[in-house]
Structures are given as structure tokens and as C-alpha cells.
Amino acid sequence: MVSWIISRLVVLIFGTLYPAYSSYKAVKSKDVREYVKWMMYWIIFALFTTAEVITDLFLCWLPFYYELKIAFMVWLLSPYTKGSSVLYRKFVHPTLSSKEKDIDDYLCQAKDKSYDTLMHFGRKSLNVAATAAVMAATKGQGVLSDRLRSFSMHDLTTIDSDGQGKSSASVTTQPVLGQHRARAMMRSKSDAAYSKTSS
Asked: Looking at residue 13, what DSSP letter applies?
């Protein structure tokens, strides 16, 4: 655990912060040699960081693994060994030069596919949002029309011109009572007529 913490600190301080400050100094001084030196370092460091994710998962059980990482970081940064320049010139540059066209084609295809995928999901999202909005509006309209159907013409005419009318209880109960009375009278008339015809 202690080795892991020390290796993380070394990578953070000497692998990231110190080179970042040195890159700042190179940009400020506009020295082309320093530009090239630090650009080579950052390319190697990016590859190191990528490889580190995998090696930390599978090789961390090796004895002195973290100490080897610290030594590698020192070797990369040392002005005497010029490790990042050596790795870049001997391995990275020739490999990238030979595969550059393939990598560019792959990146272009990936960019086009990601754009198409983004547009596809964007259209789907808009369709879902539009459908949800239409459903909400339809449901709201249905509730409003049901509410309006519950009022009779009598209910609407009892509202005063200034917007104040009878209480909601009296507005809803009076027409209902009137309807019950009318139905009862119709039933009694039809029963009387039926009894006259049957006798």
C-alpha cells in the first residue's frame, strides 16, 4: 500500500506537474528544441498512462512493481538518459508513421459514426418528447371536456355576470334533483297509461 501511494505521488509530481511547468516554460521562451522535447515526453506519457491502467490490474502483485514504475518515470524525465526522446525516436515515431493513414481513416470513420449515432439518438429523443407532449395535451383536453360536460345549460346560466354565482354545492345538486323529479313524473305517467290500457 505504501509503495502504491509513493508511486502515485511520483507520477503526479514528477510525471505530470513538473513536465507541465517545464512545458509552460518552453512555450513562454518559444524555444523550438524545448517544444519538441516536451511534446515527445507528453506522447510517451500518454502511452505510459494508458498501459498503466492495464498493468496495474494484472502486474501489481509482482515484487517491486511500483518501484519499477518510479524508476521508469525517473528514466523518462532524466536529462542524462533522455528516456522519452529515445522511446519516441526508436519506437513510437516509426510505428505511428507507418500506421498514420490507417489511424486517420479509423478516426474519420469513428467521428462519422459517432455523429450519425448522435443524430439518430437525437431524433429518437425528440420523437419521444413530442409523443409525451401530445399525450399530455390529449389527456389534459379529455379532463377539461369531461369537466365541461358535467355542467348543464342551467348551471351555466345561473352564474352571475360578474363571475360570482351560486355555491358549487347548490349548482350541482339542484339540476340533479330536478332531473330525478322529471324522471319520477314520467315514470308515473307511463305506469298510469299502461294500467289503463291493460284493463
From this structure: I
**Where is the domain boundary, 66, 100, 134?**
100
pLDDT tens digits, one per residue of 37-89: 888 989 988 888 888 888 888 877 778 888 888 888 889 888 888 888 999 99
- For residue 136, is it within any domain? no
Shared-domain flag, residues 165 and 92: no
Number of domains making up the chain:
2
| 125 occurs within a structural domain | no
> If you compute the radius of gyration of the chain from its CA atoms, what whole number of angstroms results?
42
d(CA 22, CA 190): 106
pTM: 0.51
CB of 76 within 8 A of CB of 83? yes
Q: Are 137 and 116 in contact (CB under 8 A)?
A: no
- Same domain? 20 vs 95: yes
- Which residue do the cell numbers 360536460 mark? 149
Return the C-alpha torsion angle 76, 77, 78, 79, nearest 10. Answer: 110
- Residues found in the chain: 199
80, 128 contact by CB (below 8 A): no
Q: Give me the residue label for grid cell 474519420.
A: 108
The Cα 122–Cα 108 span in angstroms is: 21
Domain with 43, as residue range(s), is 2-100
Which of these, 34, 45, 47, lies nearest to 95 by C-alpha position?
Answer: 47
Structure confidence by residue, pLDDT tens digits, 84-131: 899 999 999 998 889 888 888 888 888 888 877 888 788 888 888 778
